[in-house]
């Protein structure tokens, strides 16, 4: 590889401000994003609704909104994740309707040309005044990729492909002159893309890193990564590991987790909801497909498959934030103490869940110093709150 991304970031914004645990809304652009279930209250997408929720999150001081990149669902009775808005055009439109929050476009490397991706992100960076990020996904399930006529690659080959893909994107953002690129998987003749992004040295890159190979990829190329964790202790170990890798590449690194919020008046009520979503409301075929197609379920022992099914049906196996506002705040404080920099939140129903989180959980986080509200200069030059006023 030719690119050594060790250039310090010179742009400042809420995503990297020293204000404590960062918050993002995750998956709002996809139906049933928070759980693979047939429950009547599951999330259904609507553009006006998406705009309202993102603006609510921005006004409350959330730092990011991160879309899924989906092309088909998990079938079954209700086809969870079967309806979705394209993340590039979705983020571009939201960029014109917001002023402070960082927007991400999620991109599957195997489905998008790196030349097209570089141009689209640079354009959205101009629209947003320097508030776009690129969430890079190395691969997904075969039935979806087949729609693009793309060969399904093995785990390590997907990361090798993605490294070449990112090399090209970064060169297109950085170089003003034509360049040729010849890799094992990809080639570009006389590559050129102007204007470049507003942000320097480039828009932040995010990647979900769930394996050793993924951690190495994220440590070298990404500014932020998602890790999976069983508890705060497990999260702390993974934070140390990936930051040590990033240091070896001369880079700093922000570590996030994807978490599922189920907030209720009592602990009993919250857990009753989870049991209903994964029990009588379960879309069993869709749950099985989600596990088999995206989590290697066909290679799992039957008991592990059954245990995972409950989590997928109720929280899509995200880090569980289940209980009262106080209990959820405690869990977030533990993640922050473990070194987690940010949490991307999914919910069964965002229209109800995001306002409730803002009204009940956020004040506790701020009172306890897990988040520190402040006033900062937004990328457009306007004074914007980094937290609730």
From TrEMBL:
Residues 23-341 form the Luciferase-like domain. Transmembrane segments: none annotated. Keywords: Flavoprotein, FMN, Monooxygenase, Oxidoreductase. It holds the Pfam family Bac_luciferase. CDD domains: Alkanesulfonate_monoxygenase. One of its GO terms (molecular function) is monooxygenase activity. PANTHER family: ALKANESULFONATE MONOOXYGENASE, ALKANESULFONATE MONOOXYGENASE-RELATED. This is Alkanesulfonate monooxygenase SsuD/methylene tetrahydromethanopterin reductase-like flavin-dependent oxidoreductase (Luciferase family).
